[in-house]
Design goal:
Number of strands: 8
CATH class of the largest domain: Alpha Beta
CATH architecture of the largest domain: Alpha-Beta Complex
Strand content: 15-25%
Number of helices: 10
Number of domains: 2
Length: 306
């Protein structure tokens, strides 16, 4: 019998998008899976809409948080409720390809030493792609286009699968890193990959398991990228910690990127400086107010970039 799989995702105020996502999941050509979706206290009627549309589908379980828990806590809740031997996750703004689950499971079948599998994430653009959007800053939008299998890449939560036994061993996702409405802390997926490796398991990227990730117009702005980059850096301090060597490394990277930026004022380079600056802010005890001051400074520079 095929390995059992539970797909989990968190929805927040995107009832039409999560519906499209669920429809693509339910069309999977894999024979043994169910789906767990948690509505994180949406205010647009997401829960009621999903119950009405999918209520009779025995593969689908829909739950709701009465108060917002954030993406990480919500996922942990339904991960623990689900029963699949493999836990697969995606996001409510994704559309999965028909052989998505099958191609993730295929990798796990090679050896029990593989604890986590992540896949390709292709952008689905709704507006003209800006010239400044280059591969070095693809992680800001969780874009992953590599065509070769690898073991060195960090997983993305919108296309990720983990053995249940491994999740239980490392105590699921780190709830100190969560994204709530208005906030952009993230990196729980990167943190998970680090802990899976530390527990002695392999993390595999396969280009065969594909999801399309919606790039909404509001994401195609320099403002969004700078803010996300700063938060990415702050999140890294939460899950990776800091010490004198990491501070020195962060400062050295800022100097290197700053030199490159002075030589050629590219927005992608400025975004990388913002990322390292976010790490330094958090590591040195700064918070949201400090981040906001730096965001304004970076945006003044961003207006002069290409």
């Amino acid at each position: 019998m095929a390995i059992s799989v539970s797909v989990v995702l968190c929805a927040f105020n995107r009832k039409n998008d999560v519906t499209e996502c669920l429809e693509s999941i339910l069309k999977q050509n894999y024979p043994n899976f169910d789906v767990w979706v948690v509505d994180d206290a949406s205010t647009d009627g997401t829960y009621e809409f999903l119950k009405k549309k999918f209520g009779k589908n025995k593969k689908l379980h829909v739950t709701r948080n009465e108060t917002e828990m954030g993406n990480t806590g919500s996922r942990n809740t339904v991960m623990r409720k689900s029963k699949g031997e493999i836990i697969v996750s995606t996001d409510d703004d994704c559309i999965v390809h028909q052989n998505w689950i099958a191609n993730l499971v295929k990798v796990f079948e090679e050896t029990p030493k593989i604890g986590l599998v992540t896949g390709k994430v292709l952008p689905l653009f709704y507006t003209k792609v800006p010239k400044w959007l280059e591969p070095p800053i693809y992680p800001i939008l969780a874009i992953r286009t590599e065509n070769l299998r690898a073991e060195s890449l960090n997983p993305y939560g919108c296309n990720m699968a983990v053995r249940r036994t491994v999740m239980e061993k490392i105590n699921f996702l780190n709830e100190d890193i969560t994204r709530k409405y208005g906030g952009l802390y993230s990196g729980e997926d990167t943190d998970l990959g680090l802990r899976v490796r530390a527990a002695g398991y392999r993390v595999i990227y396969t280009p065969d398991a594909v999801v399309d990730h919606k790039m909404f117009p509001e994401r195609m702005s320099k403002e969004h990228f700078i803010r996300r980059a700063l938060y990415f850096g702050m999140s890294e301090d939460v899950f990776a910690g800091s010490n004198m060597w990491k501070l020195l490394d962060g400062a050295a990277n800022i100097i290197i990127f700053l030199f490159k930026f002075i030589m050629k004022t590219k927005f992608s380079t400025l975004t990388l400086i913002a990322y390292k600056t976010g790490f330094m802010i958090k590591a040195l005890g700064g918070g949201e107010e400090t981040l906001e001051r730096w965001r304004k400074w970076f945006m003044r520079l961003a207006q002069k970039t290409k």
